[in-house]
Amino acid sequence: MHNFLDNIKQSVIERVTSLPKFHHTPLNTLDFCDIFKNKNEPTFITEIKFASPSLGKIYKGTLDHIAIANEYLSNGASALSVLAEPHYFKGDITYIENIRHTFPQAHILLKDFILSKKQIAQGLASGANAILLIVAFLDKTILTELHEYAISLGLTPIIEVHNLEELQIALTLSPRIIGINNRNLKTLNISLDISRELIKHIPNECYAICESGIDNKIEIDKMRALGFDGFLIGSSLMKHAHPGEALKNMLNGKQNDKG
Q1: Out of 75, 111, 117, 126, which one is annotated catalytic?
Q2: Which of 40, 132, 147, 176 has the fewest C-beta atoms lying within 10 Å of its C-beta?
């Protein structure tokens, strides 16, 4: 039986095949870990995501990716996660280029299903500072190669895990950042219990990000108390016409109106 990861893998392979070669020269990019410097405040990586496999079209407002980035950065976001996957998430690598040009000091995560060094080099050339490597999507050998390659280019890899077995694989790489995805990428189901359990096994020297399923300040405060350094939040903000205002309300403990 095919699951979501199986379906998207074929799509990514086809996309990577058509990618041109990129120059593999390291650039003087921003250190993504700088977003965690203020230990007294949670770090928010807010996502520009127009659609998803589980929700279909998410954003129904009128703002473009640059305007959404501006709203996020003006209302408490520490970094931006920008979807580049075109088919299921309606993303585009050019969104990163545009946002980098407009906001030269923004910290930007390339959010994609990365299988190839070409995607990483393209991310660097487009202006990303960090990339996502999903353990469930890669075998250990390729994960290690892509992790080392990203570091060699000056990028920060965020290693994403969903269970203890994946976390143990991730920790063999001595990562600077681990993202715990509360969404099962095979079934697309979400449970915050994933983060509550896995945070116990992450060493103090590694930054921990809670991903998916966070939509209010009470949950944020509880996860902070468990040891999370940051939060990657997308769908719950992109459901609103003004995602930046939704972020501001969330941080102030206010209930966001639907739509």
Answers
A1: 111
A2: 40
